[in-house]
């Protein structure tokens, strides 16, 4: 009985191959994913760009739902840039989808607050940096 436990079954090899393949694919995907260096924030028709290297907290005044209790200063979303990552710290939207979204940092990743028409997208601006 003990000998049998030491011998790999054919199924184990296949399983190992699958695991190795998955790890390899994940690793290559990570290598290909470009780290963004700026974040583009669109509120309604206005777009602002912020650097990801600077930690900051941005108060956004998005479209207010008629059902919503407007805060006195009109701030609907608070976006935070911290250690190269971006996340929605708080929002007054009913669904809270944007707040629950994981922090983003890779080129092309987005956080959207649909009720407020707030779009946050990580972008890469390497070409412009080389020019400087
Ligand atoms: Zn939201």
Commentary on this structure:
The protein is of the alpha+beta class and 132 residues long. It has two domains: 2-32; 38-131, Sandwich (mini-chromosome maintenance (MCM) complex, domain 2), CATH 2.60.320. It is 29% helix and 30% strand. It contains four helices and seven strands; from the N terminus they run ααβββββαββα. The protein has helices spanning 2-6, 10-32, 97-100, 126-131, and strands at 38-43, 46-51, 56-60, 77-82, 85-91, 110-113, 118-123. It has a four-stranded antiparallel β-sheet, with no helix packed on it. A three-stranded antiparallel β-sheet has the order 3-4-5. The longest helix has 23 residues, at 10-32. The chain starts with a helix and ends with a helix. Residues 128-132 have low confidence and may be disordered. Residues 91, 93, 97-98, 113, 115-116 line the site of zinc ion.
Describe how the helices and strands are arranged.
Layout: H1 2-6, H2 10-32, E1 38-43, E2 46-51, E3 56-60, E4 77-82, E5 85-91, H3 97-100, E6 110-113, E7 118-123, H4 126-131
Antiparallel strand pairs: 1-2, 1-7, 3-4, 4-5, 6-7
Zinc ion binds near residues 98 and 113.
Assigned CATH architecture of the largest domain? Sandwich
Envelope shape? elongated
Average of pLDDT: 86
Please state the CA-atom Rg, rounded to the nearest Å.
Answer: 22 Å
Share of residues in helices: 25-40%
Q: What class, by secondary structure content?
A: alpha+beta
- Which stretches of 5+ consecutive residues score pLDDT under 50? 128-132
Number of strand elements: 7
Q: Number of helical segments?
A: 4
Supply the CATH superfamily name of the largest domain: N-utilization substance G protein NusG, insert domain
| Assigned CATH class of the largest domain | Mainly Beta
Largest sheet: 4 strands, antiparallel
Associated small molecules: zinc ion
């Amino acid at each position: 009985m003990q000998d049998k436990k030491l011998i790999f079954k054919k199924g184990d090899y296949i399983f190992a191959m699958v695991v190795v393949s998955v790890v390899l694919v994940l690793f290559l995907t990570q290598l290909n994913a470009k780290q963004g260096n700026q974040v583009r924030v669109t509120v309604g028709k206005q777009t602002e760009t912020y650097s990801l290297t600077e930690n900051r907290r941005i108060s956004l005044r998005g479209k207010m739902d008629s059902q919503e209790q407007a805060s006195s200063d009109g701030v609907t979303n608070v976006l935070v840039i911290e250690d190269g990552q971006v996340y929605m710290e708080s929002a007054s939207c009913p669904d809270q989808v944007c707040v629950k979204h994981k922090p983003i940092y890779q080129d092309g990743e987005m956080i959207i607050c649909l009720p407020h028409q707030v779009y946050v997208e990580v972008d890469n601006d390497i070409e412009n940096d080389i020019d400087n």
